[in-house]
Amino acid sequence: MEKLLLRTLFLASAAAIPFVLKRNNLLMLLIVFFAKGVLAVSLDSYFIKKKSIAYPARPFPKIFETNILYDFLFYPLLSVIWVRATYNSKPRELLTRSLFFSVPMTLLQWALEKKTKLFKWNSWTVLHTFASLNFTLFTIRGFVGLIKRIVPKEALLQVEESKYDSAELTANAIG
Questions:
Q1: Is 165 domain-assigned?
Q2: What is the pLDDT of residue 72?
Q3: Mean pLDDT per segment of 10 residues, for the chain of length 175 residues?
Q4: Is the C-alpha dihedral spanning 157, 159, 163, 166 positive or negative?
Q5: Sign of CA dihedral 111, 114, 136, 157
Q6: Among 34, 118, 135, 151, which is most buried by a count of CB atoms within 10 Å?
Q7: Predicted local confidence at residue 156, as pLDDT
Q8: Are 6 and 57 in contact (CB under 8 A)?
């Protein structure tokens, strides 16, 4: 059952990529995607080494101790959706929207921990999951706020349309 769940999560996440990483704000969304991947794998590795949490069923278990599907694909996509949903939010609205992301994810992880072998919580609880999800969501959102102050708005909001068609680009690349 665990392999089926992991495959389903992979396929759903892979299918969502073109819809989540849209052309508008692409630079910002890619920064968020990769920053969340680094943050998630760093935190996961730390807590795995402390033996607080384990992933008995995971892709490439002989190579990775973390579940790379969660850390490098699912959570980064969730963070991109989070940033898109809160890009212009005020602080109170940001707190409310964080609950729409963290509460369902926390409850889903708690249920999956009880019913499957995807997670094994040793000294980890549902509150740890809730806190870590919110910590990473707000860390990424703070990072986006910092980037918005540093990078010119035009660079983040619009990826210019290519002035060349694909045939001309191919011809230029070849010759």
A1: no
A2: 94
A3: 92 93 84 94 94 93 92 94 89 91 94 93 94 94 87 58 44 45
A4: negative
A5: negative
A6: 118
A7: 58
A8: yes
- 28-41: string of b/e by CB count within 10 Å (b at 16+)? bbebbbebbbebbb
pLDDT for res 164: 42
| 93 assigned to some structural domain | yes
Which tokens hold the place of 149? 């102050």
Would you mind telling me the total number of residues written for the chain in this entry? 175
Report the distance separating Cα 114 and Cα 37, nearest Å.
Answer: 26
pLDDT value for 172: 45
For the CA atoms of 103, 74, 142, 97, what is the dihedral angle to 10 degrees? Answer: -30
Domain holding 105, by residue range, is 2-14+24-154
pLDDT in tens, 117-150: 998 999 999 999 999 999 999 999 999 889 888 8
Query: What pLDDT shows up at residue 175?
Result: 46
CB 95 within 8 A of CB 60: no
Q: Is residue 166 part of a domain?
A: no
Contacts of 51 (CB under 8 A, 6+ apart): 122, 123
Q: Is residue 77 part of a domain?
A: yes
- Which ranges in 50-151 belong to alpha helices (H)? 68-69, 75-86, 91-115, 126-150
Question: Quick check: 89 and 77 in contact, CB under 8 A?
Answer: no
